[in-house]
Amino acid sequence: MAEQGMVPGNGEPAMAKATAADPSLTEGTAAFLSMDLAGNLRVKVGSISASFDATATAAAPSYTEGTANPVSQTLTGDLRTAVADGKDVALGATTGAAVITDANGSVQQYLRGLVKRWADALGAGTAAAALRTTLASDDPAVSALGATTGTKVVTDANGTIQQYLRGIITFLANALGAGTAAAANRVTLASDDPAVAVLGATTGTKVVTDANGTLQQYLRGLVSLISGTLSVAFAASATGGYSFLNIAAGQATTVVKNAAGTLHSITLNSAATATNTTIVYDHPSGVGTVIGRPNVVAATVPTTLLFDLAFANGLTIITATANGGDMTVCYK
Prior knowledge:
alpha+beta; rod-shaped
């Protein structure tokens, strides 16, 4: 009787002996079966190794005694295993069609369907082929987002994201086009914004010289020069005559012209108050070179004072201390 060996993973003893039909093994020689790392079944007979091509079954878990591999000249062969009949159907074939619905199919078909779905969802495409995602019904984000029918929120009050966005849309819609100030978006400068000081206040005094001032003061000065103290002069260039400007009785600084020109005459139309002083300047604002100080208090009215002189910077007449008389200035 030959000695017995163990087949790893089987747990059953194996026995090998030579027979007349198989002269490759000496009868009565001890043999040991073993499994190598490559899965090959090996038998050791003295110094000769042989492998068997045998399949175990549920009914016969041990290998057939004395079976040799007739095709192996090296006495080495693979131990084959196979999936039981019927189980291979669940795995499927490599040519199985993709299953992308709740339908019967093999493992291969389901895997092919997953790959197809994933490939269809990549890149640009239609919504029907995209992978759909959604929030759970009890997710806190659902209530924070709100519903499409939520009412607008236009005050500092609690609300959903939808309600706040609807409120912003309402604000913008009301501010477009013609409408009232109440519905317009208000803008303002911060109180410490440097632009506030540059703009100035509505009560700023006019600036009519090359001096520091706010935008309001410069604009007020322009208005004063154009429509306040600088009255409209009737140009007489077509006839070669003089322009004229009437200065009403009172106290005022009157800029007759803010550029170089010619003073032809000043006609005193009414008497001035006893303490009045009237000064004519070669300047666009009333300081600098004095052209003259006519004695309007003692003059007989009406009377005309002839000058016919040129001024280089401008022509300004100041009546002060008391009311001056009404006068008419002729100039170019």
